[in-house]
């Protein structure tokens, strides 16, 4: 089963928010303005979680919220363009 992390965030500081989104973009795809989906090996997922804990956690302010949901592809339901993520696209 393929594991994924859904990261949703609301960060008030523009500099921290930009740095955080650029970090997430290195590992996953933006599916909404402040939501990323990261799908990869357990090692990569562990790296992302570890970097958030060690590098970014201290930058977050009291009013910020960051949610990280670890799930598997088969447990997610998506509609619209989001339903195309994780599927092979063949163009002829």
Please give the alpha-carbon distance between the first and last residues. Answer: 29 Å
> How much is the average pLDDT?
85
Q: What class, by secondary structure content?
A: alpha+beta
Strand order in the sheet with the most strands: 2-3-1-4
Number of helices: 2
Helix content: 25-40%
Major β-sheet, in short? Answer: 4 strands, antiparallel
In CATH's first tier, which class applies? Answer: Alpha Beta
Low-pLDDT parts are none
* CATH structural fold name: Alpha-Beta Plaits
Order of helices and strands: EHEEHE
If you compute it from the alpha carbons, what radius of gyration comes out, rounded to the nearest whole angstrom? 14 Å
Please report which band the strand proportion falls in: under 5%, 5-15%, 15-25%, 25-35%, 35-45% or over 45%.
Answer: 25-35%
Instruction: Give the second-level CATH assignment, the architecture.
Output: 2-Layer Sandwich
- The global form is globular
Main attributes?
single chain, 92 residues, alpha+beta, Alpha-Beta Plaits, 2 helices, 4 strands, 29% helix
What can you tell me about this protein's structure?
The protein has helices at 14-25, 42-56, and strands spanning 3-10, 29-32, 35-39, 65-72. With 92 residues, the protein is α+β, with helices and mostly antiparallel strands. It has one domain: 2-Layer Sandwich (Alpha-Beta Plaits). Strand 2 (29-32) and strand 3 (35-39) form a beta hairpin. The longest helix is centred in the middle third of the chain and has 15 residues, at 42-56.
